[in-house]
Structures are given as structure tokens and as C-alpha cells.
Amino acid sequence: MKHTKVKDLLNSTNTIDEVSVKGWVRTFRNNQFIALNDGSVIHNIQCVVDFENTPEETLKRITTGAAVAIKGSLVESQGKGQKYEIKVSQVEILGDSDAEKFPMQPKKHSLEFLRENAHLRTRTNLFGAIMRVRSVLSFAIHQYFQEKGFVYVNTPIITGSDAEGAGEMFKVTALPFDKTPRTEEGKVDYKEDFFGKETNLTVSGQLEAETYAMSLGQVYTFGPTFRAENSNTSRHLAEFWMVEPEVAFNDLDANMDLAEDFIQYVIKYAMERCEDDLKFLDERLAAEEKQKPQNERSGMGLLEKLQFVLENNFKRVSYTEAIDILKNSKPNKNKKFNYIIEEWGADLQSEHERYLVEKHFKSPVILFDYPAKIKAFYMRLNDDNKTVRAMDILFPGIGEIVGGSQREERLDILQQKIAELGIDEEELWWYLDTRRFGTAVHSGFGLGFERLVLFVTGMSNIRDVIPFPRTPQNAEF
Ligand code: 4AD
Ligand code: MG
């Protein structure tokens, strides 16, 4: 007999004489009530064991964490809290779990403890919910772009270029550390290496995606990216997933429209399909907020926040306006910011971004037209010669969730910029070809997938929304 998922049993519209279900025991009460979960849904199904007719040996093995197969009938529940339960006729222990040693005890564990047990944490309601929401959001991303006719491009993970020019890359090499081949000048001789040149893990698929946009029109990438920045924060991972659409003939305004529509679509998609999980996460966040002092509470519940994003346009504000607001803000005047904004040109820190979003505008914000000096080489220079057509989308509680721009499509200006920054033009010959042959206005952006999952789940640490986080000094599992 094929086993049925707990989700389908709980959604059943009628009782069923014979059912089979498999899962893991969450709790076993009074030698009688098994709360069984199989990961298909946040709820457990209650399985009522006829303990008088079940061998003592078997009852002893029904422990938290054990894998069991249960046969019985789906009946209307006598107790409160559930519509249906299973009247058990047979319990088979598939895999024992030593109740004393199993780390996921039926009690509240700290998130830190759960991170240390990332291989078992999806046995909890919280991590089951987070990872189901993450999965649905991934699918929503593909759904959105596929519906709109975008082509999904798999850009390389090992690259020979530094897309962001930030130099925060992990080297990929097959050279031995003890006998590194050297050139006559004493430098590492990458000609001897696997690829015959220096290579890294990609920080972004953008440059390759641009070449595809300039032939297929609308494309997107969705894959892992890597950054060796030593940022031990609740918003940074060394390995994270990025969604990068790139569209030929889109200017910055069209890019902003796309980003806003896309984010609203995927949030709505998750709200429609993850109702139970989001309700659970909403309640969790509310309980968490209650522990905080009044002035640190966010004021809005999770579901309320998500609804707010769906119903309100993102505020579009130029960098110059934002600097004025920040310069005149209370925390700046009272020296409450760690980095005081003195003048135009300053790079914005997350404290500034969060001030704009959470205190000033109280809504998602798209900042655009940043100083060229603080942005990447490929962004389109404005006529003022000092700002570029960049945009960052800032979200409450998250800060930057999207970074993007209109790209510099003019070959001469791009070459000049590359030279000024001391980037080797030879390295980018293929990228520059897009400007040599049929160049056109085009734009794109990158959305940090984990930051989106953070926002939608209401979690506050990025390590809790990716299965096995990679951060400085941590690559367990
Ligand atoms: O702003 P970033 O660096 O932009 C790019 O890489 C562009 N090439 C994207 C493009 O235009 N196609 O990164 C984009 C987004 C950020 O807004 C942030 O959400 C996320 O990626 N991000 C990170 N997420 C987690 N951990 C990190 N270390 C991240 N660095 C960036
Ligand atoms: Mg950025």
C-alpha cells in the first residue's frame, strides 16, 4: 500500500478506512498519542495507538525523532485541535532515535543551537516552514520570468573575470600550495594552472548575462554566487543565491518597474501558497517582538508587512535627495550614526539605508543616480558626469535587497572608465564586443535571494534562511 502525505490526510474531505503514512515522531504522549510529521506541511497528524494491544517493546521505541510507518484508518478526531486523526492498527519502527541523545528535543531551542545542528533543524516547525517558503519563492522566480518570456541562462560558476571589481573573490586553483610554480618575476605562474589562467568563483553572473541579453533580449540567471568579504553580519553570506535579470532596450525606469513588479509577484505567490507556514511565522515574529522593548518593536506584523509591500509603490528617491534627508536627520545631527554623513559622495552604510526606509519613508525605497565613484565600472554615466544610473532597493529590516543599473552602452566611455580603474581591457574583450557589435541601451539588477527569504519569513539572521550557511570561519556540513 502506498503511503499518503500528512498534508493530504489533513486536507481530506472524508474519513478513509485504510491509510498508510510515514514520517518522524515529534512527540509521543501518554503511551497513546503520536504527533507525526513528514515535512509536507507544518501540522502534525495525531496517530492514536491502541496501547493495550501493542507490544511494550514497540511502544518503547516510539520516541521523538524516530522514523515510523503507520497503518490505520482516518477518523474524525475526538480531541480538540484537529479535524482528523489516525486510529492506528499497526506501527512499524523504521529507524530508532535515542530519546536522550536526539538533539531536537520537543522544547524551544535557541537559533544558535539550531545552526550548530543545521542537518537536523528542519525537524522543527520553524525550519520546516522557512525551507518550504524558500522553495516556493524559488519556483515563483522562475514562474515570473518564464511567464514573461525571459530565457533562463546558466552563467558559469568558475570565471576569469571580476564582475563587481570589488576583488572579494575566492580563487579556484589546482596548483599545489607547497610547490607553486613561479614566473621569472617570482609571481604565481597561472599558465601552469588547470585553466592556464587565474580563475575565481563568480561574484555575479551579470557580465555573461549581458551578452545573452544582447541577443536573446530578456534573460535571467538564478544561481549561487560567492564573496570572500569578511563581513560577519546577519545580512552577509560567503555563498548566496542571486537572481539577475538583464533586459535589452530597458532604461533605468523600466528596470525599476521590472524589479518592483517582480518582487511584488513573488511575495504574492508565496502568500497564496504558504498560508499555514506564513501564519506560523507571523505568530513567531509577534511573540519575538513582545520580548523586545517598546521602542525597538517594528509595529507591523509579518503578514501586514508583506501586504504593505504588495499594496504600496516603492518610493523612488535620488541619492542626492537621500543625502539631504540624512544630513538633516536627527541621528546625524546628534551623532548617533556610526558614520556621520558630512557631504555628497559618501557611501551609504546599512544604518543610513535603514533610517531612510524604517524611519523616514516607512516604505520600500529605490535609491537611484549614485555617485560614479562608489559604484561599479559598468554603470551608465549621467550627463552631469558625476552620477551613474544605478539603483538600490532598500527594504525594511533588511536594507539593500536589490542592486542594479542601466549599463554603459557607449564603447568609448566604457573603455575610458575601465582604463581609469586600472582594469585590464584585454580581460574584458568579450564583454566589450557587446558594445562593438550592435550595442543598445540595456539594464538589469541582482536580487539577493536570501535577503528576500529573510523578508518573507520575518527571520532576522541570514544564516537561518539558507540550508547550510557559509560565513567567515564556518563551512560545517
Ligand atoms: O549589489 P550587488 O553586489 O550587485 C551585483 O552583483 C550586480 N552585478 C547585480 C546586477 O546588476 N546584475 O549584489 C546584488 C544583491 C544585493 O543587493 C544583495 O541583496 C545581495 O545581492 N548580496 C548578498 N547577499 C548575501 N550575502 C552577501 N554577501 C551579499 N552580497 C550581495
Ligand atoms: Mg550592491
CATH class of the largest domain: Alpha Beta
Radius of gyration: 27 Å
* Percent in strands: 15-25%
Coarse shape: globular
CATH architectural group of the largest domain: 2-Layer Sandwich
- Characterize the biggest β-sheet: 8 strands, mixed
SSE series: HEEEHEEHHEEEEHEEHHHEHHHEEEHHEH
Structural class: alpha+beta
Give the N-to-C terminal Cα separation.
36 Å
Poorly predicted spans: none
CATH topology of the largest domain: BirA Bifunctional Protein, domain 2
Strand order across the largest sheet: 6-10-11-16-15-14-13-12
Helix fraction by DSSP (H/I, runs of at least 4) = 25-40%
Q: Determine the mean pLDDT.
A: 96
CATH superfamily of the largest domain: Bira Bifunctional Protein, Domain 2
Count of distinct structural domains: 2
Q: If helices are DSSP runs of H or I spanning 4 or more residues, what is the number of helices?
A: 14
Describe it.
The chain is of the alpha+beta class. The chain has helices at residues 6-10, 56-61, 111-116, 125-147, 206-216, 252-273, 275-290, 302-311, 319-327, 330-333, 350-361, 411-420, 429-436, 449-457; strands spanning 16-29, 33-37, 45-48, 67-76, 84-95, 151-152, 158-159, 171-172, 199-201, 218-226, 239-248, 315-318, 365-371, 387-395, 399-406, 442-448. The strands form three sheets. The protein has an eight-stranded mixed sheet, with helices on both faces. It is globular, with a radius of gyration of 27 Å.
